[in-house]
Amino acid sequence: KKSEQELKDEEMELFTKYYMEWKGGRKSGNTSYTNIPRFYYRLPAEDEVLLQKLREESRAVFLQRKSRELLDNEELQNLWFLLDKHQTLPMIGEEAMINYENFLKVGEKAGHKCKQFFTAKIFAKLLHNDPYGRISIMQFFNYVMRKG
């Protein structure tokens, strides 16, 4: 008589054999799962001083890089000046508006940090029911301040 473990082993062998026959005898047609990047790393323990220092340094470098991408006060003032200079008339009440053509002109003059905000997608997102196809300068500027 066979032991319970031997029966389980035999069952697994038969399952593997029949499964491989059913799949056509190949190991696997899709091996993309072997190329999945690792996205989780456990936090270092308290006694892993070197790993903790590495984590702190990595975080500091990441935050420095992100802060360099942010617009400083002078760049925000320059952006506001350019938007105001290129506004498209008529105004809606007190609100200055800008059309897509002038929007692109401002994007060219604003500098490389601002380029990410001067896309058709962002213009379309802020476009509402203006009969002239314009967006509010104030809404766009607030968008830049929130996202940047």
UniProtKB/TrEMBL annotation:
An individual GO BP term: B cell homeostasis
Any one GO CC term of the record: spindle
Record's keyword terms, sorted: Cytoplasm
Principal location listed in the UniProt entry: cytoplasm
Subcellular location: Cytoplasm
Keyword Nucleotidyltransferase: no
Keyword Signal annotated: no
Protein name listed in UniProt: P2R3C phosphatase
Native organism: Psilopogon haemacephalus
